[in-house]
From TrEMBL:
This is 3'(2'),5'-bisphosphate nucleotidase. The keyword DNA-binding does not apply. The lineage of its organism: Eukaryota, Viridiplantae, Streptophyta, Embryophyta, Tracheophyta. PROSITE patterns: IMP_1 (PS00629). Keywords: Hydrolase, Magnesium, Metal-binding. Its cofactor is Mg(2+). GO terms for molecular function: 3'(2'),5'-bisphosphate nucleotidase activity; metal ion binding. One of its GO terms (biological process) is sulfate assimilation. Belongs to the inositol monophosphatase superfamily.
């Protein structure tokens, strides 16, 4: 049985999906995607989901262009910077990227649902507040999103309208799809991971991340990082601040085909052609913990990590460290840029501690997992179990890693698991499908001592 993914829908409507999508996705040919400009670094015969990856690369590349264009406009229009109810900065780009990618995926793959970060509730419910605070109403805000999307969208069957854009955003929202216990097939999107990085300037990173899950397994992923400095991929840490360099990369991964990157801009900040230029990347070869380069979340400090009982940390890369000190790379912002750092060999380890008050979202990790694995690395929780994408059975939006998430080059993984277990009691959590996400999220880890509380 196959999905007929590439039959265009009669209109851009957004039906409520219900899982399971247990049939294997249609393996499309290159000819079907003749309008897609991107070329991949491996042959279609080697990649079961070649067409899906080709489409994902193209739409993420256009989403990155949208981000760059919107960010330039922010310099003269501060009213386009908003805050969501949870105080996380969100921009026209955040909504625009989700709308753009949702529209394109719905056009090409109407049978596959989308699990994404945003919904349109903010845009729909705050028109009065927007007029009072920012000097424009909600409709004009939606029109700004519409304008950004229309400039990058291709092949729409119907003209884009505000309603179409809002429905496209909601296609990835929390109420758009309901899954069951069966392995499911769906896209996972983080429109902008690291929105604070988007707002900070060219020295901070943000990532557009898109992954495809087929029958419960991540099979491909694409990350676009417009602010990435190309010399990071090849230069040593101490060369980080030298001169001007080309910026921006696209990172892709497909099961069995490796992880690859390609630069995004030339030296004059002009977008490059999306044809060719791919380079395969691998995790680093470090096998000594004290020589490893670590990343941790922007919201956490080293003393919250169990390894701090064994190692102190420094951000000073100008001198050699002793065996009791590790180098901590200051990498802002979001989780996906840390995955990108490890997959490209720039960092050796990314470690995140799960906190009872913080929900870990699937879109902050899914695309990173496939990129790490195909680059030769490993991703588990703190007891060595792979991340369970189906733990949030109905929504597939939340993951519950025991203790936290450990991302490594593979060589260091078992050593670090042993060090963590010797300094932190991580109980194995048994998920029962009848539990709601709220009940699961309220469960807390039991630390050895109050130092980790």
């Amino acid at each position: 049985m196959t999905f007929f993914l590439l039959q265009p829908p009669s209109r851009l409507s957004l039906p409520r999906f219900r899982a399971p999508f247990s049939r294997p996705p249609f393996s499309s040919s290159c000819k079907t995607f003749a309008t897609i400009r991107s070329s991949l670094p491996f042959l279609p015969e080697k990649a079961k989901f070649y067409g899906e990856l080709q489409a994902a690369v193209d739409v993420v590349e256009r989403a990155c262009r949208l981000c760059v264009d919107v960010k330039k406009s922010l310099l003269s229009d501060k009213g386009r910077i908003l805050e969501k109810n949870d105080q996380t900065p969100v921009t026209i780009a955040d909504f625009g990227v989700q709308a753009l990618i949702s529209l394109e995926l719905k056009r090409l793959f109407p049978s596959i649902p989308l699990v994404a970060e945003e919904d349109s509730s903010f845009l729909r419910s705050n028109s009065g507040d927007l007029q009072r605070v920012h000097g424009h109403d909600g409709n004009s805000l939606v029109n700004l999103v519409l304008t950004a999307v229309a400039d990058k969208a291709t092949g729409a069957d119907d003209p884009l309208t505000s309603d179409v854009v809002l429905e496209a955003i909601d296609r990835g929202g929390k109420d758009a799809v309901s899954f069951d216990a069966q392995p499911a097939t769906y896209w996972v999107l983080d429109p902008i991971d690291g929105t604070r990085g988007f707002l900070k300037g060219n020295d901070a990173l943000y990532v557009v991340g898109l992954a495809l899950v087929v029958d419960g397994k991540i099979v491909l992923g694409v990350m676009g990082c417009p602010n990435w400095k190309i010399d990071i991929l090849s230069a040593g840490i101490r060369d980080r601040k030298t001169g001007d360099c080309e910026t921006g990369i696209i990172m892709i991964a497909h099961e069995g085909c490796g992880t690859w990157t390609r630069r995004f801009f030339d030296g004059m900040d002009k977008f490059l052609s999306m044809q060719g230029g791919w380079q395969q990347c691998f995790v680093d070869s470090c096998y000594m913990v004290h020589e490893a380069r670590f990343c941790i979340p922007d919201s956490q400090t080293w003393d919250l990590i169990p390894l701090s009982a064994l190692f102190s940390s420094t951000v000073d890369d100008t001198k050699d460290n002793d065996r009791r000190t590790i180098l901590l790379l200051p990498t802002c912002c979001g989780s996906l840029c840390k995955y990108l750092m490890v997959a490209s060999g720039r960092a050796s380890v990314f470690i995140l501690r799960a906190r009872a008050q913080t929900i870990i979202k699937v879109w902050d990790h899914a695309v990173g997992v496939i990129c790490i694995q195909e680059a030769g690395g490993k991703v588990t929780d703190w007891i060595g179990t792979e991340l369970d994408l189906a733990a949030d059975e109905a929504g597939r939006r939340i993951i519950y890693p025991s203790g936290g998430v450990l991302v490594t080059n593979g060589r260091l993984h078992n050593q670090l698991l042993e060090m963590i277990s010797s300094n932190f009691r991580v109980p194995k959590r048994v998920f029962q499908r009848q539990f709601t996400s709220k009940k699961l999220a309220s469960r807390e880890f039991a630390p050895v001592s109050t130092r980790w509380e």
